């Protein structure tokens, strides 16, 4: 319980920062910052909790995550102009939040006792859904569509590594979580820094 | 119970009109009008009911809201050409539906006995989500992204005023509801008519 | 029970193919194909199960649909370049998956014992939502917005015909299902091949 809550809070904080940065790119007012921070911060975990029928949803049980997201939004509203490139910050913070959220999804799904395939999907869904909603609502190109970048792939690999760790190292929550964050963030960072990628599909006429 | 149902019906009716107007802007057929009317009309309340685990969702318990939305769609299909500016009607009807839906979200959340922060979020989510789905699916710029307009801010202020009213005036459902609609619609209308707004974020390079 | 499961599997398979084709149009890597295949394949049924509070959601109870969607994505990744026009395949496969999914939605809603209006809406929602999520996330124009094509209309007619069949022919699951698929796919195919359509709304200034 302790670990999944900690993960939820950490991903809420970092995703909220990315939501607020997306709001800054859309030049919204401070309540718009709070809106996007909350949407991004709790989007993935909310989907996970609805799908697993966890009642109540984590931020309804305890509204602290909303307060965290709100505080993050206010901080970004007054400091974003200090950043060299807001897009770069957004992408790197998203990578961190993403890695943590995948681990949170995996941890909660394992606790819920669902099958292995579903644990993988919950990891990926929890990691990607908040950022996806942020990008769709903010009219940005969703990160899942970026060609030649590892994104869903990183989440998938991290969730899979986490399951292997749980089986072969220790089923306790700490190891699988550390491995998941390490692998997901590592692959995403390698993709951003060194262009690591999987071959993409290339049809003859690209979009016919 | 009486008041929340009445609010749900009223917001369904007015949101359905805005959904049908969005369909008219996309030049769909009459079933497309019905689709957008239903999507917009029940979107926010459905999200609220799923999040609060209200079972069944309000329009599954009683399908009358769907019939109301359908009737509204048919009426708009045959009368929209009479309007001077459909966009203007859409925006003003949206403002009304929005104010009512925020009040409905607050009322239901208060009945469910969740914490104050969650009541605020439910108000905002119920108010914005239907219109957000309408705009995302119809490929329009979501109203939440309109710069220099009060939208989420109006919902937030209305929900907060409603909670203050419940504490200091009377906890009965009528007062908080009236206050919420008045504040939300008033701020939104003031924003549309007189350009009331909060300062927006201005970075140096607007979208770098 | 047997029939709704079969329908869920069939629509998962065919929708997964359309999701993978959308991924090919966006030139993603193989995990991107799997992501879009799963999103499209289980989107509509997931919404239906959440709304009807079916616990657990069909692909959480048994992860086979996810394996089916994944396999479909891998097959498309290695064979899509063989197709003459991927867009044409996408549209026709979507028509098939769509017809099956409407029938699945109607069957599950009838089993759940909800009212007639809600059965209709569940049919339409189950049929359209997976493709809608695919198109919104992939930045394609949603099929529901295509002017002069029967889409939601076909789903609506199929669901209605299915209910009539259940009342006047036989309430057993097979007849209503066959009728629903036949009518939905027939109308959609007629629209694609022969331009069948309902009159669309025409305002004076098309988008003012």
From TrEMBL, chains A, B, C:
GO cellular component: plasma membrane
Transmembrane feature ranges: 6-23, 30-51, 57-78, 90-109, 115-137, 149-169, 175-198
Signal peptide: none
Subcellular location: Cell membrane
Pfam family, one: Gly_transporter
Residues covered by the Glycine transporter domain: 6-80, 92-164
Membrane-related topology note: Multi-pass membrane protein
Family: Belongs to the UPF0126 family.
The protein, known as: Trimeric intracellular cation channel family protein
Biological source species: Gymnodinialimonas ceratoperidinii
